[in-house]
Amino acid sequence: MANLVEIGKSGIKVPFLGMGTWAIGGGSWWGDNDDELSVKTIQRAIDLGIKWIDTAPIYGLYHSEDVVGKAIKGKREQIILSTKCALEWRHETPVFHKEVDGTKVYRDLSKKSIIEDLDHSLLTLGTDYIDVLYTHWQTTDKKLYPIEETMDALMTLKKQGKIRAIGASNVTEEDIREYCQYGQLDVIQEKYSIVTRKVEKELLPVCKELGVSIQAYSPLEQGLLTGKFTMDTTFPNGDVRNNNPSFQPEIRKKVLDILEDWKKYLEKYECSYSNLVIALTSQMMDGLHILGGARKPKQIEDNAKALGVSLEEADIVQMKKDIEALL
């Protein structure tokens, strides 16, 4: 089993690979799901040693939290559970976020709203504490929702024992510094993969300085790094991949050429592209946490194999050189 990695300065240690449950929320973004299969997938993840389960109220407008709650019943003490706050549809705020399946969603990072969000999540998830609570999106106007007030809410919840560690998602360097003025920020959650690496330049230095961990989502670059797509693969109108720079012809070709060359590693390590890429991603930054999504047991079984892939140093160096060509 892979070594355990600490979440910031929280004292909480987990294997580097966790499970994301955005897709399990379903809705128009992901399509309909078989909830019973989703429950089995989460339970299979826990059996395979994936201990960090991440969800959010916005995923399927509470649906993901509801499914996660069913899956972890009787298993709560075996896992590290994270959810999020600060996206609202119970009430309007001056900061409109977006419309989700016909429901208008707003950002609200006020103390009152964060505490209400957390209490709702505790009920939905069927637990009396959350290990890591993230602010999901940051405000566009800090005068409206000062980080001092947001952090006051989070520190209050921590003192009450309702949360164990504080996280923030979709942040800037300035946000991280300000959070840390008012308490310990333990982890940020950001999009990161071996082909989308701006986090290394923009956020890694400040995180190292202040003892903040990074949790990467979309490590397989929306499927591009799984080896399942070709230059001829197209996506329907509205598919998020149509706007992803990595899927544009020039970069896509470079990525696919690299994957073709990496077939030799699949044989050497007896693994899939997903396993190889997740294992390599874990070596890109010290102490990196990675989220892999799954909706079916076979998907989480494949993800989990990455925990057992031990890459040789020379291969890590060569693969890093290969992907430098993408920058």
Q: Which band does the percent of strand residues land in?
A: 15-25%
**Helix-strand topology string:** EEEHHEHEEEEHEHEHEHHEHHHEHH
The strand order across the widest sheet is 3-4-5-9-10-11-12-13
Unreliable segments (pLDDT under 50, ≥5 consecutive)?
none
Q: Class, according to the CATH hierarchy?
A: Alpha Beta
Given the helix and strand composition, which structural class is it?
alpha/beta
> Strand tally, please?
13
In the CATH hierarchy, what is the architecture at level 2? Answer: Alpha-Beta Barrel
Please tell me the total number of domains: 1
Measured distance between first and last alpha carbons = 32 Å
How would the blueprint of this fold be written?
Blueprint: E1 4-6, E2 13-15, E3 17-20, H1 27-30, H2 35-47, E4 52-54, H3 63-71, E5 80-85, E6 87-88, E7 95-100, E8 103-107, H4 111-125, E9 130-135, H5 147-159, E10 163-169, H6 173-181, E11 187-191, H7 198-202, H8 204-210, E12 213-217, H9 249-261, H10 263-269, H11 273-281, E13 289-293, H12 297-305, H13 313-324
Parallel strand pairs: 3-4, 3-13, 4-5, 5-9, 9-10, 10-11, 11-12, 12-13
Antiparallel strand pairs: 1-2, 6-8, 7-8
